[in-house]
Amino acid sequence: MDASTAAAARSRGGVVRRTDLGTHPARAAARAGLRQLHPGAFVATTQPVDLALHLAVLREVWGGRDVYATGLTALWLYGAGERPERLVVAVRHGSELAAKAPVQVRRLSDRVLAGWRERQGIKVVALEIAVIQAAAKATQDQTVAMVEELVRGGRTTLARLRARCRRGVAGSAKVRRACDLLTGGSMDADVRRLHRALLARGVTGLELEVRFENSAGASAYADLFHRETMTALEVDGRLSHTTKEQFRTDRRRDRWMRREHGVTTLRVDVSETREDLDGIADELVDLLADIARVQREDAQAAEG
After folding, report:
1. Positions of E strands within the chain
2. Domain total in the chain
3. Residue 260 lies in domain
C-alpha cells in the first residue's frame, strides 16, 4: 500500500476503499496485509474490529450518507445492554446498502428515524424506538425487565415509550403490555382478587373503594379499607412512584389520611398480588391482626 493510500486510510479511521487499490483490489489487498470487511472496503489485518469500525466502513463506502444504529445495537451504544451478536443498522426506505456479517441492514421510514441521537460518534435511533425494536425479538418478561431498568434509571419514561408505540409495529404490543404492568394498568381485578383472598382468611369489615376527603376539599379513594383497624390498603403499580411529583402526592395523601381521619395506609405492589397472592394475603392478615392487638393494648392502657 503506497503512502498516499495509507494516509487516506488513516484519515478514515483505517478504512481502505476498494477504489484505492487499483484494477486488482483483491491482489493488492493481499500484498498490503488487508482484509475485507465489506464488498467495498478493507482494513489492516492487525486493526481491532469493533462496532465503530464496521459503521465507519459503511459510511465510507456509502458516500457519507446517513446510516443509523438500531435495536440492540442502539441500546448497546446508549449503554443499556451488552454488545449484540449482530450489528443492525438502518437506512431510509428507497436506499441501498450492502454489508457483510456481522452487519445487517434494515430499511426504515423517516418517521421511525426521526429523533435520532449521536452516541460515540455514531447516529442511533431514539432510545424509545430502540426499545420497541429490541422487544420484537425478546420475550414479554425480557421486555418488562428492559423497560423497568431504563425507566428506573431515568433514561426514559413510560409516557415517552407509549408515545412511540404504533399499531402494527413489531414490538409495540410488548412494550405497551410492559408499561401497563409496570404502572399497574387497570388494577381493579387485582384489588378484587386481594379482597377475596383476605375475606377467605377470615378478615371482616373490609370495604372496597372508600372515599375520603380532607379539609381542603381534596378527595382520595382507598382501594381496600379495614374499618376495624382504620387501615387503608393501596395496590400500586411497580413504577407508579418513579416520578418525584407522584411520590410526593401519595405521601402527602397518606399523611392527611392519618392526620384527619386516623387512617394508616399500607401499600402493596401489584406484582405481589399477581405473583404471590397467597403470600401477600397471609402477610396482610398478620399485619392487620398486629395493628388490632396494638390498638386494643393502647385502649386498655388509656382506660387503666
Report:
1. 16-17, 34-38, 41-44, 68-69, 87-92, 103-108, 117-119, 122-124, 206-213, 219-226, 231-236, 264-269
2. 2
3. 188-303
